[in-house]
Predict the 3D structure of the following.
Amino acid sequence: MSPPWLLIAWNARRCWPPAACALYAAVLATALVLPWTSEVERSAPALSADVEAGLARQGIWVLGGALVLIGLAARSASSVHRWRQGEGAWLGGGRLSRGGVALAQSLGLALALAMGLLPLALVGEARAGARSPPLRWLADTDVGPIVLFQAGARSVVPVEAPPKAAFLEARFVVAAPGDGGPTAILRASFAPEQGAPAVREQPISTSTRLRLDLPEGAVRASLSFERVGPGAALVLEGRRVSWFAREGSAWESAACLALHAWLAGSVAATIALAVGAWASPGTAFLAALAALAGAWLAADAPGWIPGVGLRDALAWCADGHGPGFPTLGAWLGWLGVQVAALSAVAVQRDLWRRTA
Amino acid sequence: MPSHTTLAIEARGLRQAYRAGWLWRPREVLRGIDIRLAPGARLGLVGPNGSGKSTLLRLLAGVERKSGGELLILGGTHADPRIRCRVGFLPEDSTFPRELRALEALRLLAALRGVGRSQAADRAREVLRAVGLEASERTALGRFSRGMLRRFGLAQALVHGPELLLLDEPTAGLDALGLGVFDELLARCREQRTSLVIASHMLSDLTAHCEQLIVLHDGHAAASGAPAQVLDDERGLALLEVEGLREPAIPALERALQAQQLRLLSRSPAPEALRALYRRLSR
């Protein structure tokens, strides 16, 4: 192997010392036998086997993913500290530049992340019984703010359904009692340029997902939401609608979750590496945690922000759906953060300077 | 192409300062050091703790960037990776990849210094044998003792066949056998005309292996020159190694010394005696 590859392999290997492997194996074994639905959920007649499998996937990925992502972020945060504790004396004197060593470190962490996520995917699917979700998320479309305040209020937006879309979902919430009670009837209509429209009426209470089967072959259409009769004021949550395909696959779901987790984890690790070049390992670790928590908690954050895709993918799992692969925007966001963070490491002059 | 007369080290007014504290004030560690080291020459650095010896070596190795002055190594600068790969550096207390076995670690370090994949394993085995660690090539560095790690440090400094060797406290932690290995390695380096800089508190290291000495004090070169000249003491203190010095000869030697107005202050076995004992025990 060439020097960068040897360095990458060593960096990945040192992230998984025997004690960490044993701890991780114990956590995964525990996750395999833990119940991931509550007794109340199990007794509810509406809980389908798909949702139960999705909840198991979500639970295992949240537990294992948090362990791997946070563990590697901590490891990454102390990278530059270890260089300054003595490793820099032989890392800095070789043929690789500072940027080269930083890149090798980042790639090593990314490889270690993949090594941790692979068993997680296997355990997640084993616990979910490798049950294929009936629907797979394709894309979201921003349709702007939709507020249906009065009886007869109607919003119409032109939309373009992605190819293979067979199903549309919009989540409405009750914003205020409005002009008549705590619930309301919502009528959704998807009218393609050619062919018959698909229409559905559904009562909305608190927070309700409205699902609409799409006519075959429809791409461009006019989408309308109308409040029928008196009731509460309704607001479209997230100002977006989601499109789904029918062919869900268990292993595709696992691969999608792994890719989302890998994107989020490698970004957190690189942020920790970059901040660690300029601040203490503790500060670097906190910065990585803040980045992960921010992506997880920020409402309506754009999908290119690394980590947001993982949160959404896990939310789809909990609904019994299969998540989609990371979008091009998510990959570009990941690339942007990597370039910025590694540049911040490479411009630090004192990467190898010995500290006490 | 560097000519044969290219100096191994040419430093003029070399300075190093670290910024620290809330006010980010600079603290000078080296204050204008000049060095001219010819190819194959051997230089010793001596000075009290905190005088700047290790910092100077780290600057010469390219591990740290200078704050000021000019520095040419083997006719080039550290910005050129080919120059960095022609320098071997044994740091004072380096942290080597403890997860790796000795042979794996040396192959990694050799590859990082530009040794080709096909040669790296052979070179690694060769230097492990040279430092007496061939039996431990499959032992993880995390299981090495301090002395073994020091020998490994010597091996990694030599694995790529450097033209300039920088050694920081090379004999610290070495046992008598390790000291013997060190002497043999430096003798081989002398044959190969490898330029050498040693920082040490052990005068024997410096006087035995170096032709020039620089005494550092508070970041300055307080004195420089040949070891005998720099270390000339007012009282004329010196260590002599004598072969065949057994009990009946000692009183006679003392009398002879007294006759010359000299006084024997102490007597202890030479390191070679301990080395010979270890070799007997290991047989």
